Amino acid sequence: MNILDKIIFDKKREVILKKSIIPVSQLEASVFFERETISLSQKLKASSTGIIAEHKRRSPSKSIINQSFTVEEVVKGYENAGACGISVLTDGKYFGGSLDDLLLARASVNIPLLRKEFIVDEYQILEAKAFGADLILLIAAVLTREEIKSLSEFTKSLGLEVLLEVHNQEELEKSIMPTLDMIGVNNRNLKTFEVSLDFSKELAAQIPDNFVKVSESGISSIEAINELKPYGYKGFLIGENFMKTDNAGQAATDFIKQL
After folding, report:
1. Residue 2's pLDDT band (boundaries 50, 70, 90)?
2. pTM of whole model > 0.90?
3. 253 in helix, strand or coil?
4. How far apart are CA 235 and CA 50, in angstroms?
5. Residues acting as catalytic residues
6. How far apart are CA 123 and CA 18, in angstroms?
7. Whole-angstrom Cα distance, residue 20 to residue 33?
């Protein structure tokens, strides 16, 4: 069992447990359920930098990245830096995140928020909406084409956007459908955790132009972004690079200024 299989196994159990405690009606009663969402895809199209900054405390590959910031400090710093959107990790066991992080982020900033999670069930999409997200992530490696279709359709019905993450040609081919807004190429192999920008470069031409292209993981330099832009990428998801510093907001500010 690789790390991704473990995460998904645990996630499915977690969702069953949550469903037994918090009914859907309670999620639908959230103040955020009526909220007008903000489009990340539109912001990326209009931006010259395209940075999606991430709030991430730890990861299976790096263990602790940073536990000392508050969510508010990080996300306000990112918003002030000029990030197009913010990715908030909500997985507890492997990434040290929670839905409360998403809630605190929503209370602190007025830019698009991505619920970064291993989504296997519509219930998690309802949670994303109830806790203030504007978009969700679907990971092609763990979903069938039918699941991607039904989950993305459900997401759109709630007024949220969909960022679909792929890692190779096969995942991309099974995933392309009109209910996606953005297609992200993860430069990190989720099974081995090895990182290479070549994944983004190789898949760029296969992604139809009606989807906003996003490159994710392993982006730590201005050069990397300048290297990827000619391939049509409009969004760049950066997590560890900012979070591992003493001041994530300042690190994002300096990075975006250089861009």
Report:
1. confident
2. yes
3. helix
4. 4
5. 54, 56, 116, 165, 186, 216-217
6. 9
7. 21
